[in-house]
Write a structure and sequence with these properties.
This protein is α+β, with helices and mostly antiparallel strands and 278 residues long. The chain has a single domain, classed as Porin (Beta Barrel), CATH 2.40.160.
């Protein structure tokens, strides 16, 4: 279960460092060299195969890293804060499983073959500053490898939120932006992947419940740097627009629970729970 939850992080290492993992659906063994096509393939074919293989990974990383950035258009007052757990889950569509008919059967469908939903949990915290500004941090780390190759896969995110309209009688409006970066153990390093997410969010609060909606973009950049004999040095980027609608419940003072549905190129849900002090 833990490995399946961390599939978004581990599968990137697996895809690019040619390691093995297992998930709830079974064993997965992805080798970038196989997706890069046989030696007799043209450079154009190799590059296209590689791009087709990494595109679902960019969808996944952008959606899951950039998901759950907000549950309100309200901004914390000075030294107000929230801290809690976020769980983002992307639904894997057929468009994110390229066929690769020329490759071996176990490679067809790409890195997300056999997956229907891919979840990712993380710690999220935010604190209010002066001038309708709030800063936030997000974090997840997990060990992988064994013995001399053991290390930690770490996701780090930093972001900010600015309140455009914070009138009590009107819906609250804010802009949110965050940058996420994946750190791999040296023996699994394949290059780098990072994501920049930005959104406009609107919310309206009622006693014990509030509703929010947002629209924005997830921009993901992925660089593959693998030495010979595979010998790959290419960069890819993709921008996915998305929207979401959600609800936040405050069953007790300071405690909140929220869930929202996200739609766009990548689809899924984000949920969270934690402590909130405005």
């Amino acid at each position: 279960m833990i490995k399946k939850i961390l599939l978004p992080l581990i599968s990137i290492a697996v895809l690019f460092a040619m390691a093995d993992i297992s998930s709830a659906q079974g064993d997965i063994n992805f080798k970038l060299g196989d997706y890069y096509a046989p030696d007799d393939a043209s450079s154009k074919t190799k590059s296209q195969n590689l791009e087709d293989a990494v595109e679902p990974i960019m969808d996944m990383f952008g959606f899951l890293a950039g998901g759950g950035l907000y549950n309100s258009g309200d901004v914390h007052g000075f030294m107000g804060f929230d801290v809690g757990i976020k769980l983002n889950a992307m639904r894997v569509t057929d468009d994110q499983k390229p066929p690769f008919p020329e490759l071996e059967y176990e490679l067809r469908g790409g890195p997300l073959q056999g997956e229907s939903v891919v979840p990712l949990p993380m710690i999220h915290a935010g604190v209010g500053l002066f001038g309708n500004v709030e800063v936030m941090g997000r974090f997840l780390t997990f060990p992988m490898g064994q013995g001399d190759t053991e290390g930690n896969v770490t996701l780090i995110g930093l972001g900010a939120k600015y309140g455009i309209l914070q009138n009590f009688a009107l819906p609250k409006v804010a802009v949110v932006a965050a940058y996420h970066y994946l750190i791999m153990p040296e023996d699994f390093d394949f290059g780098n992947v990072n994501n920049l997410s930005a959104a406009l969010v609107v919310s309206k609060g009622l006693p014990f419940i509030s509703f929010y909606a947002g629209a924005g973009v997830d921009y993901t950049n992925l660089t593959v740097e693998i030495p010979p004999p595979i010998d790959i040095n290419e960069s890819f980027n993709k921008a996915n627009f998305k929207g979401n609608v959600g609800v936040k419940i405050t069953p007790f003072p300071l405690l909140f629970i929220n869930i929202d549905y996200n739609f766009g190129v990548a689809q899924g849900v984000s949920a969270g729970a934690g402590i909130n002090f405005r």
